[in-house]
Each structure stands twice: as C-alpha cells, then as structure tokens.
Amino acid sequence: MNHLNDMALFVEVARVRSFRRAAEALGIPNSTLSRRISELEKAIGLRLLHRTTRKIELTEAGQLYYARSKHIVDEARLVHEQLGEMLEQPGGILRVSLPVDFATLYLAPILVDFAGHYPGITFEFDLTPRRVDMVTEPFDVAIRMGKLEESGLIARLIGRHSRQLYASPGYIEASGKPATPEDLAAHECICMTRVSTWNLHQRINKVDVEVGVRGRFTLNSVGMIRTLAIKNQGIALLPEKIVADDLAAGRLMRVLPEWKGPDVSIYAVTETRLTPAKTQRFIEFLSSKLMET
C-alpha cells in the first residue's frame, strides 16, 4: 500500500470534512475512498476520523496527522505541477474567499477573464464578509482588503484602490455642495460606523485633514452604501473603480474632487508560500489587473 497516496486522500477528506465531496474532487468512488482511509488508520494504528451519518470530525490524532501531512502533500503536489507546467496549463479546483461587494461590483469581469485564460481550472468562490480560517478551512487563497491583523499567514499586496467622495446630483441639488471638508459635518454622510472620522488628503497642496461625519445610515456594505448614495441619501467615501460606471452615467458625481480618502490595500492571503500553479497564476493575474492603474 502506498501510504503517501493514502495520506493525500486523507488530506482531501480532512479539508472538506466529507467523503462524498472529497471523492467527487478526487474522481474516485466514495466506497473506495472510505476503504483506503480505513486501511490508512489500520496501518497507523490510530483512528483519525470520527464518522457519523451527518458529519466527519478529526480525532486528536487526526488533527496532528492532518497538520503534518498537509504540508507534505502540498509540497509533493507542487513539485508535480511545476514539472508538468511545461506540458499543460494549471488545472484543478481553485477555492477562493472573496469580499462580497468587491467581488460582485468590480472583480466579476476579471474573474471571467482569468477563467478564459485557464480552461483547466474550476472554481469555488465563497463570497463572505467574515475572515475565513485559512488553516482549518479548505481555501487556496483569500482576497482581503484594508489593514491585516498579524496571523502568521502569507500576505501579498496585489493592488490599491483610491477612494473619493461621491453623491448623487439629486442630493446635491437638495442639500447643496460642500466647499470644504469641514462642510461635511453639516451633510448626511453614509458611514461604516455610527461615529465616523474621514481622513482626507488634498493632493495639490499635500494637506491632510480629519473630519468628523455622521448620518442616518450606518452599514458595513460598500454595495449598499453605493446604492444609498445613488438614491439621494447622502455623501459617501467609495473606491473610484467601483463607482466608475455610475460616474459615467451621471448617477453619481464627485464631491470635493481635489480631496481623496486613504487608499484601500488589497491582499492575496495564503497559508503557505508553497502554493500550486493554479493559485500562483490566479494571484499573478489579479495583481496585473489591479495594479494597472
């Protein structure tokens, strides 16, 4: 029995916590996969998985075996992929965690473009506002925006988004146009937090100001903030790439155009530097598109 092959099977089962899903990903019968894992447990002399009708959990031994074997399997897979890249394009399932608004409002055309370049790759995109656990959850890469916390993960800066102030023509007609950053205090501002401070920078004179703003709407969705701004509900600080179509169509207009907010950094986060070809190509492709402007 080839223990390295069985180790790879176990790693896939442990990643997805499902024999059925692992069997589908590996292209082997469920019964064969279950039998091979049982044989691996017998060879080791310890139970690695708790099996129930509803879910699979790792035993204490299984957690240790997964932590050690995952890196071995990933490194072996990486070597095989690198050797095979000269003959064929990268393939396999690419599992990506993406910020909801960023993906739907801006990234979708880029993702379609990438899929067209690499027909051998299939995709599982998880659009969620939460910070997924790259160690225990089965993701190849997570795209994250803003300041990163210390985590021990590998983070690569792949882009920056400039932020500007926007409002609808209807709001400006009804409420007037602010002439200075200080005037924002008298306006409805659509904010991420109830008590919000906007740090603005004037590029011409290189002046920085900090302005306290408030408004009736407080929310944590860039997409919803954009929609409320279009619906005449106030002034919003938004990434300019996300509102480019609205600006061109006249749904939004710039407010205080000589001032801008802090850039938003965009990162590709992986558990290890030993990423397979599909992940490397994806990160490189995103970086080339996001760094274009």
UniProtKB/TrEMBL annotation:
Domain HTH lysR-type: 1-59
InterPro entries according to UniProt: LysR-type_TF_proteobact-type (IPR058163), LysR_HTH_N (IPR000847), LysR_subst-bd (IPR005119), WH-like_DNA-bd_sf (IPR036388), WH_DNA-bd_sf (IPR036390)
Keyword vocabulary terms for this entry: DNA-binding, Transcription, Transcription regulation
Origin: domain of life: Bacteria
Transmembrane parts of this sequence: none
UniProt similarity note: Belongs to the LysR transcriptional regulatory family.
Name of this protein: LysR family transcriptional regulator
Organism of origin: Rahnella inusitata
Lineage: Bacteria, Pseudomonadati, Pseudomonadota, Gammaproteobacteria, Enterobacterales
